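Note to self: the last two entries modelled the partners one at a time, which told us nothing about the interface. This time every component goes in together.
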Amino acid sequence: SQTIHQWPATLVQPVGSPLSLECTVEGTSNPNLYWYRQAAGRGLQLLFYSVGIGQISSEVPQNLSASRPQDRQFILSSKKLLLSDSGFYLCAWSVPPTNSWVNEQFFGPGTRLTVL
Amino acid sequence: GQQVMQIPQYQHVQEGEDFTTYCNSSTTLSNIQWYKQRPGGHPVFLIQLVKSGEVKKQKRLTFQFGEAKKNSSLHITATQTTDVGTYFCAGRSTGNQFYFGTGTSLTVIP
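The predicted structure of the combined assembly is written out below.
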């Protein structure tokens, strides 16, 4: 069966420090991978998605970046964190979307980031 | 860019009352999904709708996709305390990405 891992679970970082969040998927190959951010009490904002190794699409211009060095590894990074980067970061995977079958997104447990 | 709005943002109901959340997209959707997020948890998939006017049921939950494929609704009959959480719709147009709605937070008062 497929599983998705995210770490760390919680993180407290000072403003201006770098960030690296990692997400890995097991039990599937060539998944679509997604990074979302959820501010407290708010909806999910799509940050990046990837359809393959080295292929990253950015949805929101900001000081964050994403990389996919391996098929089932997705990394979210920042060189210098801002206060506004605080939030709940969720990684998700799905099979490539079509209308032919259900392509639900499976979410990881999330990383709660607080920038002070 | 694509926007998906949900109303209401919050809903408090007495246990046993019905609940409905509505989702509206600025663009026509290929399909729409619904997710539930329990407090402190991550979103969990409930269902996907694809066809215009489609209606699907899961026990006390009824999901509808509008004829124009720009809106959707989730209706819960006779709410229970286990229904507590935030319900999100997520719409896809033509690409690989889904755009999540703003969510409706449901509180059920026993």
